[in-house]
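Reviewer has doubts. Consider these tokens.
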Amino acid sequence: MKIAPVQKQTSAGQRTRFKAFVVVGDEDGHIGLGVKCSQEVANAIRASIQLAKLSVVPVRRGYWGNKIGDPHTVPCKVTGKCGSVRVRLVPAPKGAGVVAAPVPKKLLEMAGIQDCFTSSVGHTRTLGNFVKAVFDALGKTYGFLSPDLWEKTHFTADPYQEHTDFLAANANIKLVS
């Protein structure tokens, strides 16, 4: 996504290092984000790719309206936050496309979301916080438990009903004394 030079003030001047932001995705419901700082650009990129592969999260996709075809958008409205940046992902109808700035558009397409409306608030020029906020929102898609994720419930007979059936079956037996 970006390689940013960062500096630390020392007694001898500044020490420059490079911070790399890397996103990996399979365009089928998985995305990972890696951030690493190093003295050399190549080392920062290599390490952030490894971290991105280690931090892969599943992204739940859903429908807007009828459940026709494959899931194409986010299942519900989700919000992510990092620093001053807040990103809101809103489900969109099929064919709307990803309506977003270039940064979240790249992440959403890597996650396999074809249609989505977005809204962002805060200092989105800080690319690191913007990317982390979108990643946070995508990670929250599985945080919402909808009826299609509920476990099947197998009902058993009520204990009162079970015993009344037993007593009714044995009511015709006469005791001989």
In short: The mean pLDDT is 87. The two ends are 91 Å apart (CA to CA). Helices lie at 41-54, 102-111, 127-139, 159-169.
